[in-house]
Amino acid sequence: MNDRLGIALVGCAHRQHAWSYARAVTSSPNARLVGVYDADPALGHSVADDFGVPYTDDLAGLVGSDDVRAVIICGMTSEHRRHVELAADAGTHVLCEKPVATTVEDARAMVTATENAGIQFHVAFVCRFLPQVRTLRAALAQGAFGQVIGARAGNRGVPPLPPRYPPWITTPELSGGGALIDHSVHLTDVLRHLTGQEVRRVNAVTGRLLHDLAVEDCALVSLDFDGGAVANIDPSWSVPANNPWDYDFFLHLVGTDGAADLDDISESLQLVSATAGDGLRLVGFGEDPDAAMVEAFVSSVVAGRHLDPCATGTDGLRALEVALAAYDSAANGSRSVPLGA
Question: Core-most of 20, 91, 231, 290, by most CB within 10 Å?
Answer without folding.
Answer: 231
